[in-house]
Design goal:
mainly beta, nine-stranded antiparallel β-sheet, Cu_amine_oxidase_C_sf, 11% helix, Beta-galactosidase, Chain A, domain 5, disulfide bond, oxidoreductase, binds 2-acetamido-2-deoxy-beta-D-glucopyranose, binds copper (II) ion, 3 domains, ten-stranded antiparallel β-sheet, globular, Nuclear Transport Factor 2, Chain: A
């Protein structure tokens, strides 16, 4: 291969298919380069010599994962376990004869009661794998008992839709059109060199004709001539419909021949190239935080995180990204650990584009159930994705043939201090009390970043010592743009609608939404006796003569009896708080203990409920839902999402209207973004973030962080402009 072509080929793999080259080699992850992380010669800080420093002892960095073994019932499958599963699946008669494809192999979590009653030091409950395999077009859901080697459950059929695409599916889809002479001819007719093509695998949604009875995919292409940012050079109007299993081209739609391909100018966003192309601006000096005595958190056996008053289990997941389990917070009065949440994760993402034309109508991505949100999470970049004091966790995933592979540095954990205030009070001179009491706010952040083709999602779980948990999603990466004949808005007729914003010559950023639906299995002081309470603020008028005031607000509590009582559409002028309480557990003064969901990122889907994508995405019809705990109801868009028809969504489950009062309940919250692109989003978007919170409400007897100490200069390293050893 020629040098240039070879580079293109490498780039092709890296950026389009999100496939790490070592993915299928079954190699341990390469050792991260740590020299830039812990260069103690440049920092005059006891931190560097501290025996307590997690980083200096960090076993993780030299670990190859072959020796991993499970320590906790929720620990993900190890390499050893995955290899055993592969062997067991291989021995299934019909699989070994005719072959199979594995779409998912993950730990089958033991039943919730089993996990909750397990204690450290005891034997682990039987380790099982949940396997989704396809053989002869039939989807099998298996439970494999790893110890006994037996398949203890096998299910076929069920709801509409296909399992998550494999990475192999995505790779073959982008290459397959090149086997078709008509496709090649079309590309050449557009004046594009076939060697410059970069194609994307696009899930087709479900519209009821071409999607029936076979797995299909749509492929659209870009040119990467003169830029690494090929997304800004779409071959507009060209869509290849492909059978994902036979790789046959079913149809080529080619409607954009009159639309020029945008120039490569100013599309490169890499530091090396932006330094050349724009004025040099050095706005900031280097910055980082110091932890002179090392970090305050520990990670036991790779997965059990303990920090300040918090403890939780953390694991990477190929579909959800990260899963946080058994979240407990310490009661400052009794010292006991108290349950808050059994499990929290991003259950689904829904990203509908708002252009009904032929080349765009189907773009309504479900990034978790179609592409695998965790599979698309790339290694985090130390110092920039996560600060210098971060700890990194790898993911161990499974390829389509059952081979385990390592996704290194997929998740990071770090303490964050942004100069914020935990609580404060100062007395004015009027009282004569010389009081200024202030406490700094330090938080613990768990982060991952998924790059689903062009888009990047940053998901943070942030824990505060006052008991609050914040789930934050940041959007960055590159827009999905549409080619256009226009180079300036003055060419656009007043009556013509562009479906987006002209961002640069010949490209339009198409309007779209992002919805991230979280599964929050709240267990306030244990799994049972939880209820969902809407605390509604209502305007109350005073009686004539009662008060100089005419009106005030009254808080009215409504306990949700059944699921439909908990289908919440947020309303600015009819506000409520949303509490999850334990009706069996009261505070000293008699309030039920609870946590509330504090909404944020409240964009709501306005699509018609009968619109095919909204049927599949019906879990976004409300911002909040509450369901009774059911271990089969984890994925808001259904177990099988690819080409699903919306018959297994959260909306369908919730409409059963089951009782949810005084039960084990699950809260679902959807963080929403409307995105009308603007020129600043070109050629890459500055991060946009939204978050929601779960916050204690009468859970503690009083402010739980009265006893945290203030910062003192004597505890901190000496900061000098050019400190050196
Ligand atoms: C640490 O930093 C010093 C000063 O910048 C540099 O000379 C040295 O090579 C660095 N050491 C490592 C291991 O990177
Ligand atoms: C299409 O072009 C590619 C790249 O040049 C080539 O490898 C392939 O054989 C062509 N396909 C056909 C059917 O000619
Ligand atoms: C709490 O839940 C348990 C188990 O579901 C039930 O037996 C008990 O009656 C409940 N307590 C109250 C006060 O409702
Ligand atoms: C649990 O969920 C599955 C899937 O939605 C459903 O078939 C089953 O009926 C549910 N069980 C209960 C008790 O609601
Ligand atoms: Cu967007």
């Amino acid at each position: 291969m020629e040098g240039k072509n070879f580079l293109r080929y490498i780039f092709f793999l890296m950026s389009i298919i999100l496939l790490l080259i070592f993915t299928f080699l079954n190699l341990p992850s390469p050792l991260p380069n740590t020299s830039h992380l812990f260069n103690c010669t440049t920092y005059n800080s006891p931190w560097c010599n501290s025996k307590r420093s997690l980083f200096l002892q960090q076993p993780k960095l030299t670990k190859n994962h072959y020796a991993d073994f499970p320590n906790h019932p929720l620990d993900p499958l190890t390499i050893d376990e995955i290899l055993k599963v592969k062997k067991i699946v291989n021995s299934i008669k019909e699989f070994s004869k005719n072959g199979y494809v594995l779409h998912s192999v993950v730990l089958e979590e033991p039943e919730k009661e089993v996990v909750l009653s397990w204690r450290k030091g005891r034997q682990l409950p039987p380790r099982k794998a949940s396997v989704v395999a396809r053989a002869f077009d039939v989807v099998h859901v298996l439970t494999v008992d790893i110890e006994t080697g037996r398949v203890t459950r096998r299910q076929t059929g069920g709801n509409s839709g296909y399992p998550i695409m494999t990475i192999e599916d995505m790779v073959t889809a982008t290459n397959a059109p090149l086997a078709n002479a008509d496709f090649n001819r079309t590309i050449v007719q557009r004046g594009v060199d076939l060697a410059d093509l970069a194609c994307l695998p696009i899930s087709p949604g479900w519209y009821g004709k071409v999607e029936e009875k076979r797995r299909v995919i749509k492929v659209q292409c870009y040119i990467m001539k003169d830029t690494i940012n090929f997304y800004m050079r779409p071959i507009e109007g060209l869509t290849v419909l492909l059978d994902l299993d036979t790789q046959q081209v079913i149809q080529i739609i080619d409607e954009g021949k009159n639309i020029p391909i945008a120039k490569a100018t100013n599309t490169d966003y890499r530091f090396s190239s932006t330094q050349k192309n724009t004025q040099k601006i050095n706005l900031l000096k280097p910055i980082s935080i110091e932890q002179p005595n090392g970090p305050s958190f520990t990670i036991e056996n790779n997965h059990l995180v303990k920090w300040a008053n918090w403890e939780f289990h953390l694991k990477p997941d190929p579909r959800a990204g990260v899963v946080i389990s058994q979240v407990m917070v310490q009661d400052p009065d009794t010292g006991k650990m108290r349950n808050v949440m059994y499990k929290g994760f991003t259950s689904e993402l829904f990203v509908p584009y708002m252009d009904p034309s032929d080349a765009w109508y189907f773009k309504t991505y479900m990034d978790a159930g179609e592409y695998g949100f965790g599979l698309q999470a790339m290694p985090l970049e130390p110092l920039n994705d996560c600060p210098r004091n971060a700890y990194y966790m790898d993911g161990v995933f499974v390829a389509a043939d059952g081979t385990p592979y390592v996704r290194s540095n997929m998740v990071c954990v770090f303490e964050s201090y942004a100069g914020d205030i935990g609580w404060r009070h100062a007395e004015s001179p009027i009282t004569g009390l010389p009081i200024r009491e202030v406490r700094p706010k330090v938080t613990l952040v768990v982060r991952m970043a998924a790059s689903v083709a062009n888009y990047d999602y940053i998901v943070d779980w942030e824990f505060q010592t006052d008991g609050l948990i914040r789930a934050k999603v940041g959007l960055s990466g590159i827009l999905m743009v549409k080619g256009s004949p226009y180079v300036n808005m003055n060419q656009v007729n007043q009556n013509e609608y562009l479906y987006g914003t002209l961002l640069s010559e010949n490209i339009i950023g198409v309007i779209h939404d992002h919805y991230v639906t979280f599964h929050l299995d709240m267990d306030i002081d244990g799994p049972s006796n939880n209820s969902f309470v809407k605390v509604n603020l209502q305007k109350e008028m005073t009686s004539p003569g009662e008060s100089p005031r005419k009106s005030y607000l009254k808080a009215v509590r409504n306990v949700a009896k059944t699921e439909k009582d908990s289908q919440i559409k947020l309303k600015l002028y009819d506000p409520s708080e949303f509490h999850v309480i334990n009706s069996n557990k009261k505070s000293r003064v008699g309030n039920p203990t609870g946590y509330k969901v504090v909404p944020g990122g409240t964009a709501a889907s306005l699509l018609d409920h009968g619109d095919p994508p909204q049927k599949r995405g019906a879990f976004t019809n409300n911002q909040i839902w509450v369901t009774p705990y059911n271990e089969s109801e984890q994925w808001a868009a259904g177990l099988f999402v690819y080409q699903s028809q919306g018959d297994d969504t959260l909306a369908v489950w919730s409409d059963r209207d089951r009782p949810i009062e005084n039960e084990d309940i699950v809260v679902w919250y959807t963080l929403g973004f409307h995105h009308i692109p603007c020129q600043e989003d070109f050629p890459i978007m500055p991060t946009v973030s939204s978050s929601f919170e779960i916050k204690p409400v009468n859970f503690f007897e009083s402010n739980p962080i009265l006893n945290i100490p203030p910062n003192s200069p004597k505890d901190l390293p000496i900061c000098k402009a050019s400190a050196s050893a």
